[in-house]
């Protein structure tokens, strides 16, 4: 353990580095605001302005909010993931460790950082109201505009959610001491990152389907990258133990964060500026170009860390000496990151170039123009790129194939047919979310219902039979340090958690699978989700997860908290599937269209009436249930037969072992169930014979 003197000796260096990074962030913000024109007062006749305080206070508070959120995520990441757990006394199994003293210290630091995050978000909320209404901050604070803004506009609601979640993290991090709780706080902080950026320019972009997903991926990757580096640098400056392990884990994570940040950032630029010339001819484009340059510089820092400083840490630790090169380089990199974040805030405060095409009501709602009349050929060929589900498909296929490849390299086998099932399931996701089905599903209820049925009742069957959890448990390596938790240990903990035991209970999984469909379509929730791209993504992901959970209980070979016998599975199948037929019949008998406001807004000139299209969707829901039922019956029959064969072979092997033991020792084969059964029959027959002889006598 590092001495207190060493830690105190590193405090001045840490303070200097933090001050330099903060100055770099604010300096980058100021320069970018001036260069992009956002710092200049916009005087429009007849419209009041909020004043200089709001014009500068809004981007400054947003920069502080972004930095505080990244540092909060970094501190929680260090406590839960980067620092290894310490083994409990007397605990021999891996994954049963506790948080170290340094990890608990980072949890307490996360509490203070989350409080600063909440305060900065609250200040951003006040300045945003002042900017939108054109009123000074004092007038906003003394009037009633603040409360009405929070409840009526998306930006206000999003910032209030951030404040509430950050306060919860700040309070719980004061008392948390378990690894599971630290992971939970990390997930909560990750959720709190998203509401604010998703209600900015991305939500109103012409290509908002790509922009919204791109911003979400961008923010989700930037925060652990920036915050993680800051905490690792602080750990090095304070001369604390386990720095090589911490730096190596961060380096692996940072590489993936860098890839995601680069890909999502490029998607955001393309969504807002389809013409590359605008990178040089507009203020927004020039700021984006400066951010690209800064991103390249950060990539060089990451390469240098990976190739030079991280290996040097292990060498220095083996010799028992300290390596200040990593701390100095990480400090400089943190300052560049802070300046880049200030530049990013200025970029988000600068209006992007206006769209070149004619903006219509349909284009504003959908993100694309009205497609031509629907045909089977156009459903198959008129593809529509959805970044979220494209990324999901790539990740699902890539991670699964990587697991299979690791097993093959290790000399272990994995059934080819399971891989084929998994890839077919991924292919159905692509067909349902990237083809013309995705383009027409927001316009026609019938196409939406076909997409729903595919993702909810067909795709999960193939994914479940692919046995992804079993593959992960076999491919992932155990944690190298005794008591620590790696991905394999965390997966095991999740499978044995109370939450998994609850949601994977057959009754609960069936209720989620059936009741959520009725609750979605027969309430105003469906129209609310259709009006927002994030809502549409959430709805589609729910279809996929609810189906996966149900068929995991029904067909899964993966480890599960509770497994039904095969007769129980058949009964569950025949009880559940008719509910989807009832749902389809209910849709066909409705006399008023569902989500009438949405479908009237995107009403295609070549479409049928809303009610007729809804009845077609009901017919699809009614008829579609036959396909998955037939597939499930076939899979269940094969699984049942294979299980009986395995049990028969197991009994035969037990009987052979018992027979060999009896032959070698001369003792009766007590463990041979078949021999015992035959001996029992022989004994009963002998009793009957003796009883008959006594009766004759």
UniProtKB/TrEMBL annotation:
Chief location bin: membrane
Organism: Actinomadura algeriensis
Protein name: Copper resistance protein D
Domain Copper resistance protein D stretches: 247-347
PANTHER family named among the record's database cross-references: INNER MEMBRANE PROTEIN YEBZ
Localization per record: Cell membrane
Ranges annotated as spanning the membrane: 64-85, 106-129, 149-173, 180-198, 210-232, 253-271, 283-304, 325-347, 382-407, 419-437, 457-476, 497-522, 534-557, 569-590, 619-641
Lineage: Bacteria, Bacillati, Actinomycetota, Actinomycetes, Streptosporangiales
UniProt keyword list: Cell membrane, Membrane, Transmembrane, Transmembrane helix
InterPro entries assigned to the protein according to its UniProt record, in alphabetical order: Caa3_assmbl_CtaG-rel, CopC/D, Cu-R_CopD_dom
Membrane topology: Multi-pass membrane protein
Positions of region (Disordered): 652-671
């Amino acid at each position: 353990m590092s001495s207190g003197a060493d830690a105190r000796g590193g405090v001045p260096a840490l303070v200097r580095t933090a001050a330099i990074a903060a100055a770099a962030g604010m300096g980058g913000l100021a320069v970018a605001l001036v260069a992009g024109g956002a710092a200049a007062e916009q005087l429009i006749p007849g419209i009041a302005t909020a004043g200089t305080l709001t014009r500068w206070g809004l981007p400054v508070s947003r920069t502080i909010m972004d930095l505080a959120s990244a540092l909060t995520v970094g501190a929680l990441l260090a406590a839960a993931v980067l620092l290894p757990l310490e083994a409990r006394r007397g605990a021999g199994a891996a994954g049963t460790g506790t948080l170290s003293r340094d990890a608990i210290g980072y949890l307490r630091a996360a509490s203070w950082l989350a409080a600063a995050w909440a305060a900065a978000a609250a200040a951003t909320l006040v300045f945003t109201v002042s900017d939108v209404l054109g009123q000074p901050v004092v007038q906003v604070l003394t009037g009633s505009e603040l409360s009405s803004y929070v409840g009526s506009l998306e930006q206000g609601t999003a910032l209030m959610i951030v404040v509430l979640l950050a306060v919860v993290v700040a309070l719980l991090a004061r008392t948390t001491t378990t690894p599971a709780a630290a992971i939970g706080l990390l997930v909560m902080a990750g959720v709190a990152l998203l509401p604010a950026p998703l209600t900015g320019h991305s939500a109103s972009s012409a290509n908002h389907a790509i922009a919204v997903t791109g911003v979400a991926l961008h923010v989700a990757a930037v925060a652990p990258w920036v915050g993680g580096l800051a905490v690792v640098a602080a750990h090095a400056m304070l001369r604390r133990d386990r720095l090589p392990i911490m730096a190596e884990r961060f380096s692996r994570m940072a590489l993936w964060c860098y890839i995601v940040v680069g890909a999502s950032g490029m998607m955001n630029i393309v969504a807002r500026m389809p013409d590359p010339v605008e990178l040089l001819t507009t203020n927004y484009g020039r700021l984006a170009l400066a951010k690209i340059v800064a991103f390249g510089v950060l990539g060089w820092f990451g390469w240098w860390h990976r190739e030079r400083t991280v290996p040097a840490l292990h060498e220095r630790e083996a010799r028992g000496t300290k390596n200040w090169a990593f701390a100095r380089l990480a400090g400089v990199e943190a300052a560049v990151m802070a300046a880049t974040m200030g530049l990013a805030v200025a970029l988000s405060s600068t209006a992007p170039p206006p769209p070149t095409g004619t903006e219509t009501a349909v284009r504003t709602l959908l993100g694309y123009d009205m497609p031509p009349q629907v045909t089977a050929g156009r459903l198959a060929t008129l593809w529509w790129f959805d970044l979220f589900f494209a990324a999901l498909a790539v990740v699902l296929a890539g991670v699964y194939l990587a697991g299979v490849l690791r097993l093959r390299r290790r000399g272990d086998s994995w059934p080819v047919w399971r891989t084929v099932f998994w890839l077919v399931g991924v292919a159905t996701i692509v067909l349902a979310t990237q083809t013309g089905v995705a383009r027409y599903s927001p316009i026609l209820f019938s196409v939406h219902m076909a997409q729903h049925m595919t993702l909810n009742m067909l795709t999960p069957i193939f994914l479940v039979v692919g046995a992804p959890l079993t593959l992960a448990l076999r491919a992932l390596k155990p944690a190298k340090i005794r008591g620590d938790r790696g991905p394999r240990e965390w997966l095991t903990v999740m499978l044995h958690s109370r939450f998994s035991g609850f949601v994977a209970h057959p009754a609960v999984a069936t209720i989620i699978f059936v009741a959520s469909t009725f609750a979605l379509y027969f309430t105003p929730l469906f129209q609310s989700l259709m009006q927002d791209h994030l809502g549409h993504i959430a709805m589609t992901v729910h279809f996929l997860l609810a189906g996966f959970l149900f068929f995991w209980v029904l067909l899964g070979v993966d480890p599960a908290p509770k497994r039904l016998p095969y007769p129980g599975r058949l009964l569950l199948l025949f009880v559940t599937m008719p509910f989807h037929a009832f749902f389809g019949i209910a849709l066909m008998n409705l006399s008023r269209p569902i989500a009438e406001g949405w479908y009237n807004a995107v009403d295609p000139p070549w479409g049928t009436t809303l009610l007729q299209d809804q009845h077609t969707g009901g017919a699809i829901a009614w008829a579609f249930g036959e396909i998955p039922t037939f597939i499930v019956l076939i899979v269940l029959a094969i699984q049942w037969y294979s299980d009986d064969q395995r049990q028969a072979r197991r009994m035969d092997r037990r009987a052979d072992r018992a027979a060999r033991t009896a032959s070698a020792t001369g003792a009766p084969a007590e463990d041979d169930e078949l021999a015992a059964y035959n001996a029992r029959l022989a004994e009963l027959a002998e009793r009957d014979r003796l009883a008959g002889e006594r009766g004759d006598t």
